[in-house]
Amino acid sequence: MKRDSRLSSVLHALLHMAEQNEPMTSEQLAACMCTNPVVVRRTMGLLRDAGLVTSERGPSGGWTIAADLEAVTLRDLHEALGEPSIFAIGNRNENPGCLVELAVNAALDGAFADAEALLLDRFAKVTLARLSADFNRRHAAHRARS
Amino acid sequence: MKRDSRLSSVLHALLHMAEQNEPMTSEQLAACMCTNPVVVRRTMGLLRDAGLVTSERGPSGGWTIAADLEAVTLRDLHEALGEPSIFAIGNRNENPGCLVELAVNAALDGAFADAEALLLDRFAKVTLARLSADFNRRHAAHRARS
DNA sequence: GCTTCATGTAACTTCGTTTATTACGATTTA
DNA sequence: TAAATCGTAATAAACGAAGTTACATGAAGC
Ligand code: FES
Ligand code: FES
């Protein structure tokens, strides 16, 4: 199955934007991430709907972070993206008609629910600020090496 | 996204087979699960490669469980199926060329790895015997009600 | 041996989802 | 008004899972 990589994408975009004082255009972000400006607008549009970024039209327009980096977590971003389903594995039939399926689904669903809860919990503990700091640490180390 | 439902499928098949003394044909299993005999063979073939079931050709042939129900766990089945990737969400670029991607991937990968570990751990704790018992319990309750 | 039943497997199609692309409209700045 | 930029709909491309078709292989029974 094709994986949804939008969470990864918006994180990229946000980290770039966090290093910048001016708005960044869809074009810039797209070039940087090897994708298409329209894709950037579509995805960032969801973050705008959630109040995490703002967009301005016209010359000198573009995308700007509108939230506190300390407050925004990966979980917030996941929710802003519409909480896409997390698993690539699932039940054959979600509304079972027979007892065999009921028993199987019960066993699998419990495990999946627990794993999802753990993942979302981990997401909730990572802020954009922490990610940005992590990036800057790596950046400094990289410059020191070269 | 289209989810991989093979784990769910083989569980269905195995529970049916556990209730049966004779081999079951691909045709029977397919009819029971509303799918195609060839799909059944493809999937069950992986379990056969793992030594969990056997297949016999010709008249009176079919599929038979070859392992101890107490010993086989969901994790064994997951492995027999080739350990398909569990998540429908992932990194945009698994082999990052820039430090932004490195930082993002590190954050996400850690969370995904932990969730995967938890899920596999849960899988390892569920045996076919337990599932079969669960089914029989439900079956008895169902008969008592009607 | 011949027929029948069943698996083994390759090739192809269908279907659903994600991402990319095209096209055009709306808004802002100069 | 011209240029830059987002907003959005419509469409195509790319991909993977499941389904389907077709035929080969092997076993059982006569
Ligand atoms: S995504 Fe911007 S440099 Fe890597
Ligand atoms: S009766 Fe539900 S799968 Fe067999």
UniProtKB/TrEMBL annotation, chains A, B:
<dbReference type="GO" id="GO:0003700">
    <property type="term" value="F:DNA-binding transcription factor activity"/>
</dbReference>
<dbReference type="GO" id="GO:0005829">
    <property type="term" value="C:cytosol"/>
</dbReference>
<protein>
    <submittedName>
        <fullName>Rrf2 family transcriptional regulator</fullName>
    </submittedName>
</protein>
<dbReference type="Pfam" id="PF02082">
    <property type="entry name" value="Rrf2"/>
</dbReference>
<dbReference type="InterPro" id="IPR036388">
    <property type="entry name" value="WH-like_DNA-bd_sf"/>
</dbReference>
<dbReference type="InterPro" id="IPR036390">
    <property type="entry name" value="WH_DNA-bd_sf"/>
</dbReference>
<dbReference type="InterPro" id="IPR000944">
    <property type="entry name" value="Tscrpt_reg_Rrf2"/>
</dbReference>
